[in-house]
């Protein structure tokens, strides 16, 4: 079976080059083609000899994702892609334009195992992990199609990034590389539903990324009702590991809190959340719940959302409301799917 060469890190590529008795600079050349220029065919590596290209193609393939469908928001220009992977599976990615540049929201798995009750990404179940190369390919394909340079990455698409730990770390390492896309770790955000042992593992890498936790409830009763993962790692486990993370890395953590009417948006919830996070180096991102047809999510009024925000702020918690982008093309948080659909659903 051939291996995905875009999923190798630089050290592995260098080792391969040395095992094949080639000069070390070959590794730089190949890495640059794969990670800076995002080529999908060995024949595009024009400064690599024909013979070497042949050897490479006998041992490796280059992961790729092809545009199967593309939707552009008429409201804010957000672009959603449905990508087809080499084995025919699908994932979605979203490109958003901010004042500081373009951000991509990438998928890390085909589907998701986590089963959050309000999210579309888990509806069709879990199929497989994406390779590091496949996660990165989403950037290359989008950049080429839109003729832009992406400067920020959020691992907030389909899948649970910490359930695909090794490939995600490798992806971060590769996009970080100066010979690759050269995207600073500070411009990368990883969102997790709270896989506690992997959050602990992440600390050892001491990456400068932003860690975001999908909390969505201030206590176990509500959280277990909407997020099955809470039965494995409860709110206290998460808060404890986050405190450890902050003291080890000195980095601020973000908490995502999706407001669902009548479920987790009461004044009591806001107060309990403020109590829970008191004194922590953190920020709360409130997300008005987005519609997912099968889920029956109900969004509260703007007034109730602002009220929740004010209670947090009054109690000393740093909090903001996340701006909704791509709402007319189902490209907002929790709306991505691994399915091909007729409409932008
Ligand atoms: N699996 C990771 C990455 C997904 S990030 C995680 O859970 O963090 C996507 C974010 O959108 C998560 O915070 C997720 O809980 C949230 N989300 C899911 N469905 C949503 C919906 N319908 N409306 C608003 N936010 C939603």
Notes on the structure:
The mean pLDDT is 96. The chain is globular, with a radius of gyration of 21 Å. With 345 residues, the chain is of the alpha/beta class. Strands 3-4-5-6-9-10-11-12-13-14 form a 10-stranded mixed sheet, covered by helices on one side. Helices cover 33% and strands 21% of the residues. The site of S-adenosyl-L-homocysteine has 18 residues, from strand 10 and strand 12.
TL;DR?
This protein has 345 residues and is α/β, with parallel strands linked by helices.
> What general outline do the C-alpha atoms trace?
globular
Return the average pLDDT rounded to an integer.
96
User: Count of DSSP helices?
Assistant: 10
List the ligand species: S-adenosyl-L-homocysteine
Rg over alpha carbons: 21 Å
H/E element sequence: EHHHEEEEEEEHEHEHEHHEHEHE
Helical content (DSSP H or I, runs of 4+):
25-40%
* First-last Cα distance: 35 Å
Strands, count:
14
Global structural class: alpha/beta
Going across the major beta sheet, what is the strand order? Answer: 3-4-5-6-9-10-11-12-13-14
Fraction in beta strands: 15-25%
Largest sheet: 10 strands, mixed
Model regions low in confidence, pLDDT < 50 over at least 5 residues: none
Features:
single chain, 345 residues, alpha/beta, two-stranded parallel sheet, 10 helices, 14 strands, binds S-adenosyl-L-homocysteine
Question: Which secondary structure elements does this structure contain, and how are they paired or packed?
Answer:
Layout: E1 3-4, H1 10-19, H2 25-35, H3 50-59, E2 60-61, E3 65-72, E4 79-85, E5 90-98, E6 101-105, E7 109-111, E8 126-129, H4 132-146, E9 150-155, H5 165-176, E10 188-192, H6 196-205, E11 210-214, H7 220-226, H8 235-249, E12 253-259, H9 267-277, E13 282-288, H10 302-314, E14 319-321
Parallel strand pairs: 1-2, 6-9, 9-10, 10-11, 11-12, 12-13, 13-14
Antiparallel strand pairs: 3-4, 4-5, 5-6, 7-8
Helix pairs in contact: 1-2, 4-5, 6-8, 9-10
The chain binds S-adenosyl-L-homocysteine.
The site of S-adenosyl-L-homocysteine has 18 residues, from β10 and β12.
């Amino acid at each position: 079976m051939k291996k995905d060469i875009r999923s190798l890190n630089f050290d592995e590529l260098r080792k391969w080059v040395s095992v094949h008795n080639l000069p070390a600079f070959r590794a730089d050349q190949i890495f640059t083609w794969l990670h800076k220029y995002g080529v999908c065919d060995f024949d595009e590596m024009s400064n690599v000899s024909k013979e070497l290209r042949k050897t490479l193609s006998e041992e490796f393939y280059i992961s790729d994702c092809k545009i199967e469908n593309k939707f552009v928001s008429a409201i804010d220009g957000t672009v959603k892609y449905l990508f087809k992977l080499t084995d025919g599976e699908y994932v979605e990615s979203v490109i958003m334009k901010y004042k500081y540049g373009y951000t991509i929201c990438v998928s890390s798995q085909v589907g998701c195992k986590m089963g959050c009750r309000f999210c579309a990404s888990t509806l069709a179940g879990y199929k497989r992990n994406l390779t590091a190369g496949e996660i990165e390919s989403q950037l290359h394909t989008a950049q080429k199609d839109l003729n832009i340079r992406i400067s920020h990455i959020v691992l907030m698409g389909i899948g649970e990034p910490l359930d695909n730990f090794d490939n995600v770390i490798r992806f971060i390492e590769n996009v970080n590389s100066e010979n690759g896309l050269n995207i600073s770790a500070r411009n990368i955000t990883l969102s997790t539903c709270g896989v506690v042992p992997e959050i602990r593992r992440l600390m050892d890498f001491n990456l400068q990324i932003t860690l975001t936790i999908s909390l969505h409830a201030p206590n176990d009763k509500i959280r277990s009702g909407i997020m099955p993962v809470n039965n494995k790692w409860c709110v206290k486990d998460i808060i404890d590991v986050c405190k450890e993370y902050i003291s080890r890395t000195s980095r601020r953590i973000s908490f995502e809190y999706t407001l669902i009417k009548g479920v987790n948006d009461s004044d009591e919830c806001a107060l309990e959340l403020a109590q829970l996070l008191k004194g922590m180096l953190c920020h709360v991102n409130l997300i008005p719940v987005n519609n997912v047809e099968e889920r029956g999510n109900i969004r509260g009024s703007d007034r109730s959302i602002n009220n929740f925000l004010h209670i947090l702020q009054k109690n000393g918690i740093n909090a903001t409301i996340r701006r909704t982008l791509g709402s007319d093309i189902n490209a907002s948080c929790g709306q991505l799917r691994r399915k091909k659909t007729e409409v932008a659903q």
